[in-house]
Amino acid sequence: MTLTVNQAAGSLRVAIREATAGLVDREQLAELMILAAVAQEHLLVVGPPGTAKSAVVRRVAQSLGGQYFEYLLGRFTEPSELFGPVNLGKLREGLVETDVAGMLPEAEIAFLDEVFLGSTAILNTLLGLLNERQFRRGHTRISCPLRVCVGAANSLPEDEGLAAFADRFLLHVFVEPVADHRLEDLLAGGWAAGQSKVMAAAELSSLDVLNRAVPKVDLEGVRMPLAQAIRLLRQAHIPLSDRRIVKAQQLIAAATVLAGRETAGRADLWPLLYVIPTAAGQHSAREVLRELLAEASHSLLHAVVEQVAQQPLARLSRLTESADLLLADDISADTRLKLEALLREIDANFDPEQIPVELGERRKRLVAAVSGV
């Protein structure tokens, strides 16, 4: 059966939910990974050790299926550890070919931890693999099926050469340890996640459908507000290279496709924030672009848009989905507590007179479920 764009996007939403079950405040990372995969770009995750960077990537990969490759780089990592050893049989014939079986050149989803610790030989080879999906080493020339590569590091590099390599990751996201007020959720969720196995909730064929739809998105209506946003960033001394500006359109188109639309609007411009390569730049840009980002919305990428917009309407899709999921469950004591918590969050974000119709209807059903009516 051939999937429609909406069906493909829906399966990815299920994959995100499956992958992030129990992982507190990490939905944003999973959603950006999906956005990167649909845009056929790469994601750099920067944050201290122990913030579940690898856990999220690994679980999203398990939920999507496909060939996965993961490696922790170090100062003494050899290229063969990533790309495969020299084929000794071919070497006897005078040909330097690489046996790539099970290695990075065959991966569809890849995670490279401490990516900036790689040697010059590794990083130079990675450039071709990331940019062109081509692996070239010795006499070996192969096309790679790579959908998305996630690189991780504790901090951005200061070395200019490494900074140029970091620029090949179009999306940058910065993660912090879970806040104090959510430590109980962290403990409970982490324990539950450790006891459960991630099930495949989507297939890479879903990505194929969405990948093909991205170039067809009509961006004409957002180019003027996008250009104005970039001017505002420049005025605030938040520079973006021409390359990153042009490629930002790929992310905007991918966000539009994931929302089930063919024409991009102002609500789809939010990925621009994650094209800014530094944490300080992203922080400043939230203030500079406050009015534009307040319009951000998305029916599938709930957490990342909430983080960008920080407005009640940006929470609408998540609250609606949460209500539907809870109302579909049997009403147990645990479910009742969750229903009550969701009702409190809805009431904290929306006045009764201003609540959107679709959420208002669900609120009535939540009240009835809590009351046992």
Summary keywords:
373 residues; five-stranded parallel beta sheet; 9% strand
Summarize the structure.
With 373 residues, the chain is of the alpha/beta class.
Tell me what you see in this structure.
By secondary structure, this protein is of the alpha/beta class. Helices cover 52% and strands 9% of the residues. It contains 18 helices and 7 strands. It has helices at 5-20, 27-39, 53-64, 79-83, 88-92, 120-132, 160-166, 183-195, 204-213, 223-235, 242-258, 272-275, 279-288, 290-293, 302-309, 316-327, 333-349, 357-371, and strands spanning 43-46, 68-72, 109-113, 134-137, 140-143, 148-153, 171-174. The strands form 2 sheets. The chain has a 5-stranded parallel sheet, with helices on one face. Strands 4-5 form a two-stranded antiparallel ribbon. α1 packs across α9 (204-213). The longest helix is centred in the C-terminal third of the chain and has 17 residues, at 242-258. The radius of gyration is 22 Å and the shape is globular.
List the helices and strands and how they pair.
Elements: H1 5-20, H2 27-39, E1 43-46, H3 53-64, E2 68-72, H4 79-83, H5 88-92, E3 109-113, H6 120-132, E4 134-137, E5 140-143, E6 148-153, H7 160-166, E7 171-174, H8 183-195, H9 204-213, H10 223-235, H11 242-258, H12 272-275, H13 279-288, H14 290-293, H15 302-309, H16 316-327, H17 333-349, H18 357-371
Parallel strand pairs: 1-6, 1-7, 2-3, 3-6
Antiparallel strand pairs: 4-5
Helix pairs in contact: 1-2, 1-3, 1-9, 2-3, 2-11, 2-15, 16-17, 16-18, 17-18
